[in-house]
Write a structure and sequence with these properties.
With about 325 residues, this protein is of the alpha/beta class. About 35% of the residues lie in helices and about 25% in strands. The chain is built from ten helices and 15 strands. Strand 13 and strand 14 form a beta hairpin.
Length: about 325
């Protein structure tokens, strides 16, 4: 079976979606790929191989029967456009965040339910080959008892307008870490710091954030301690370190095949993995084939949105204590 996919929004990341889909088209997995952007000039600069281009998403959806629409437009448009496309009974992949408010996420979920469309989010790390391999290693007990996870994401890009550092960078961690650790996504917050130029600031102005949290496990097992450090305008780093009672895992999640196991004392060695794929490609394959993995992920949208809201509220409470003091 092959599929027809449309991409709405052809900016920097929309172009990444298009290139991924054209690769899947070359392999025979996807049959047709269409693009839509309100900027006609941008459409003229897209790669060859597309089956059609439109400047209006409604016209595109009226003209073609789609298996999936990817919405890669500015964050403030996600809720309204997502609901409109879902109302047609279409399956939709919305880049993160699904919406700029918890209420918007709830409305999208409700629209998907009544329209019989499926709703998917752009939290790619659940489709990262190294993270999936690490999750399997943890579940098999190869590192012993899971003790802690450290997540670091620093970007050389400047702060994105109208996006705070938690929503823009830490949200991937808050979605992925509970999945990786196999724990309920209900963190206990030990400490939050929100900084600009290494000074306390309000969340809207911050270029860096540090979260120290814990996740409880069923039974009498010890909590999993988690440190999340994210920031803009710094040297690029994308690292996950998992500490177990016997061994550790470490992963540069900019690369799909960088997972290592070992310890500082004995050294680390690469973990052998097969069928390594770029996360976005794998996500498309999973969504289009309606895999159990993609369905499970689609059921976690509200939990992730609620955790993000709580985290941002906690960050603002911290700011009230320390900013200008």
């Amino acid at each position: 079976m092959t599929y027809t996919v449309g991409v709405v929004g052809c900016g920097r990341w929309g172009l990444a979606h298009i290139r991924t889909l054209l690769k899947l088209k070359d392999s025979g997995f996807v049959d047709e790929v269409y693009a839509c952007d309100i900027d006609a000039k941008r459409l003229k600069e897209l790669p060859d191989g597309l089956d059609g281009c439109f400047t209006a998403w409604a016209e595109m959806c009226d003209s073609v029967s789609f298996d999936l629409i990817a919405l890669v437009t500015p964050n403030t448009t996600h809720a309204s456009l997502g609901k409109a496309i879902l109302s047609r009974g279409l399956n939709v992949l919305i880049e993160k965040p699904l919406a700029t408010s918890l209420e918007g996420v709830k409305e999208l979920i409700q629209q998907a339910d009544v329209s019989n469309g499926t709703l998917h989010s752009g939290y790619l790390l659940r489709y990262h080959s190294g993270i999936l391999a690490a999750k399997e290693i943890i579940e098999q007990g190869q590192i012993g008892l899971l003790k802690s996870i450290r997540y670091v994401k620093y970007s050389s890009r400047n702060k994105i307008p109208l996006t705070n550092v938690i929503d823009g960078l830490a949200s991937h961690a808050l979605d992925t870490v509970p999945f990786l650790a196999g724990v309920p996504p209900k963190p206990f917050f030990n400490n939050i710091t929100v900084l600009n130029q290494q000074k306390p600031t309000h969340l809207a102005n911050a270029d860096e954030c540090s979260l120290n949290i814990q996740y409880s496990r069923p039974g009498n097992a010890a909590d999993v301690t988690v440190e999340i450090k994210v920031g803009w305008g710094q040297n690029d780093r994308s690292l996950i370190t998992v500490e177990g009672s016997r061994n550790c895992l470490r992963l540069d999640f900019r690369r799909a095949n960088s997972l290592e196991i070992g310890s500082l004392g004995d050294g680390f060695k690469p973990v052998s993995m097969t069928d390594i794929k770029p996360p976005l490609q794998f996500q498309y394959e999973q969504i289009l084939s309606q895999s159990e993995h993609s369905i499970s992920h689609s059921q976690s949208h509200l939990q992730t949105a609620e955790i993000l809201r709580i985290t941002m509220l906690r960050a603002e409470n911290w700011c009230e204590k320390y900013v200008d003091n």
